């Protein structure tokens, strides 16, 4: 079921403490991922600084869940949102949707 996130990486960063892993994944879903899903609106509003901040914050989040290909895209977008974001927009949004689905599956599988 996992094509982007890595379950082992999540437990590596959050330890074998199931409650901690559960809470951290919930935080990622409710804050970090939600913020990244708003990038299209921020781009339309030409909010380059906000895009940079969200990409910067999102990089570490993606590392914690093993989504390194998404982390790489965020790093590239952070460097020049106005130019680079349109090149990655469709793939990024698709990958973020997959990350959301996989994290929800992870929560159900581990703590269901």
UniProtKB/TrEMBL annotation:
GO terms for biological process: phosphorelay signal transduction system. InterPro entries: HPT_dom_sf. It comes from the Bacteria. Gene3D superfamilies: HPT domain (1.20.120.160). This is Hpt domain-containing protein.
């Amino acid at each position: 079921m996992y094509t982007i996130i890595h379950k082992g990486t999540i437990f590596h960063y959050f330890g074998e403490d199931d409650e901690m892993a559960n809470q951290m994944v919930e935080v990622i879903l409710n804050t970090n991922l939600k913020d990244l899903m708003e990038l299209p609106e921020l781009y339309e509003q030409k909010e380059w600084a906000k895009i940079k901040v969200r990409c910067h914050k999102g990089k570490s989040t993606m590392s914690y869940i093993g989504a390194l290909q998404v982390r790489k895209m965020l790093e590239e977008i952070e460097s020049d949102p106005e130019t680079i974001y349109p090149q990655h927009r469709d793939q990024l949004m698709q990958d973020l949707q997959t990350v959301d689905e996989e994290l929800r599956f992870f929560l159900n599988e581990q703590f269901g």
